Amino acid sequence: MFASLTSPQVRVLGQEFNPIEEMEPIEIARMIQNQYDEVENLRPEEESDVIVYDETTTQTTFRADAGIEGSPVELFIHVTEPVEMGEDFVVAVGGYPELLPDQEGNILTMMEAIEPDG
Fold first, then answer.
1. Has residue 9 been placed in a domain?
2. Using the 8-state DSSP alphabet, how is residue 80 labeled?
């Protein structure tokens, strides 16, 4: 699973802000965890640098417990810090079961391939 999320600047009372601009990867990972009833026990594993949209940023690898079709599975979830892309911010998220450890390279490659639309 891989997704890139884009959040535009919001203007309120003459001031601009972006809801994800200041979010840490753990906050984003918890938002994702909350979307799935079967994902729990989210915990950070390691951090490394990755280049997203020509900017070096940090991606954090998390481990989580999940249940897929009634069977326990351990997941790896990778989340980048928000990266400014023009007036927007982008966050990359990728995940895979522990049974497929070779997928980490694919996730990092997709993070580095993020480009602006158009």
1. yes
2. E
Entry pTM: 0.89
Contacts of 94 (CB under 8 A, 6+ apart): 1, 2, 3, 77, 78, 103, 106, 107, 110, 111
Answer whether residue 47 is part of any domain.
Answer: yes
Which residue range forms the structural domain that includes residue 70?
Answer: 2-112
The domain total for the chain is 1
**d(C-alpha 6, C-alpha 94), whole Å:** 15
Is residue 91 within 8 A of residue 79, CB to CB? The reply is: yes
DSSP-derived letter for residue 56 is E
CA dist 87 to 45, 75, 82, Å?
31, 33, 12
In a domain, 117, yes or no: no
Would you say residue 118 lies in a domain? no
Over residues 36-70, the pLDDT tens digits come to 878 899 999 999 999 998 899 999 999 999 987 77
